[in-house]
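Project standup — Tuesday

K.O.: blocked on the structure for the chain from last sprint. Re-posting the sequence here as requested.
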Amino acid sequence: MLEVQEDYDVLIALDCDVAIVRDFSNLISTTELQSYPHPLMPYSLPEWEFIYSSSGLTIPKEENRIHYNTGVLIIPKNLVKKLRKTWGKYCHLLLDHYSHNTQWAHIA
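H.V.: unblocked you, prediction finished:
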């Protein structure tokens, strides 16, 4: 989806189990990536701290900003390539780094 070549202003990526029940076009940003903080945390706070620090990232101070739901992503076209590159980088980092570490293998 992050390699779509067609002309568009904003890429709206939805999981197959998402239903649109009203017009939300007034909520779409053409300048910022939009998603929703995920209400469930798949990892403990110490695990998240480890993930962020080992990736060279600063963990958000607000706990509800640590983990986002990617079932709904609204991505302005000018951010799509950067997101694809960054997402791929961190996916590979997680798989390469954590799959070889028995303490953290469950993260990968």
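K.O.: great, moving the ticket to review. The first helix runs from residue 45 to 54. The first strand starts at residue 10 and ends at 14.
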